[in-house]
# Entry
Amino acid sequence: MPNSQTTSPPSSISIIRPDDWHLHVRDGAGLKSVVPFTASQCGRAIIMPNLTPPVTTTEQASSYRQAIFDAIDKNSNFQPLMTLYLTDTTPPEEIETAVDSGIVSAVKLYPAGATTNSDAGVTDIKKCYQTLEMMQKLGLPLLVHGEVTHQDIDIFDREKKFIDQRLVSLVKDFPELKVVFEHITTSDAADFVIQSSSYVAATITAHHLLMNRNDMLVGGIKPHHYCLPILKRETHREALIRAAISGNNKFFMGTDSAPHSKHNKETACGCAGMFTAFAAIELYAEAFDNADALDKLEQFSSLNGPLFYGLEANSDKITLQREKWTVPDAFDFGDDVVIPLRAGQTINWKITS
Ligand code: NCD
Ligand code: ZN
Ligand code: ZN
# Structure
């Protein structure tokens, strides 16, 4: 029973069905394994385009969208919101095609070399200015992996440097381009978003709200806690929590659930990414609960995202119960397995309906 009269914490909450504004579902057999988790929790999800080869055209986005529908229950109401992968040569006409299609919700900027499958990404944002001009004109948001990639920039400073060296001038040059600073990990990024115009927003992952870099590096190296942008120090995690629970509508849920097979994670040169989609809203509920801010969860998970993207909130609700459950050691992932966040450990919240 929800309990607002006393100080004892609620044992269950009902919220408008959430959306995931940053999600990797991969393709092929892996897609079939992971996308049903999101389809069962979320009304919609922004589908990241960093496949091999990347999803650079509306035509590719359309067939990827069909593959997603083919991988979920026919009766599901889940809507995948597709994105295009921006390259140095994405023509402005492709933006018009994308908007006309009605199936493309945003364009994703990966600085070349910044993260998984970003080799075809942008080498110099100036090369994209005509395309960004068209996006600004047509109201198509730009989603940004905000890290610089120079070898000489420390990995823990790459987000802050991206703000100073790239983002400040980008939002100045395109003041009415909708920009989502994806998966922010620092107080610098949270401050930048707060101080920017209403055209600038950010997603925050559950794992960056729940963990700091000690969780990756103390007591042995934890490859399943390695993601990009990398986990930061505790003061940054605290700043992200403050932003997420602030009620500021610029911050919304984006899990960045990024499954990689066990053998691609547990190796000498492991891939970046955590698999969280199997318990997305439960992990956020835990983070908000830890901050005594469960009453702020719905706005973050279910209202702020649609508001920024110009969509209606979902019309149905989900209920979460305070109930400890043990996460499986692994989930199927195509012919392989993926190790989920909290494998073999517990999560404090569970969806009941
Ligand atoms: C993502 C992936 O594996 O696709 N990895 C990650 O660590 N977040 C890519 C990304 O979102 O940067
Ligand atoms: Zn990214
Ligand atoms: Zn991502």
